[in-house]
Predict the structure.
Amino acid sequence: MEQIVFETMVNYNEYIERIKLNINPLIESLREEKPEEQLNEVANLIEGLEWLVTVNQKLSELNYENKIDVSSLNQQLQEVVVAIENQDYNLCADILEYDILETIQAYQPYNLEGEIK
């Protein structure tokens, strides 16, 4: 079990870093001429953020605390969905840039020191 927890924490930490690196190009492409081509990437991002929340909650149940603001993130994700439904890709990009990116920047990686490897 401890090996699975460690690997999950590693994946969580790596995924946060990938989001931080890849969200800006996604934001830029949403503001360009053919943003609808990026909708799969936005869907993948939303799915990944939902995975982060789920992992965080499950690890918390195992007494591995790493607080994230789930309610704020869920609200932001709902706003992204509404913006996409309205085909307002600039608003979608703004929410990603000014809300979700800020939320993700505040996420702390799990401390892996002392964990089973």
Remarks:
- The chain has a mean pLDDT of 89.
- Residues 2-30 form the longest helix (29 residues).
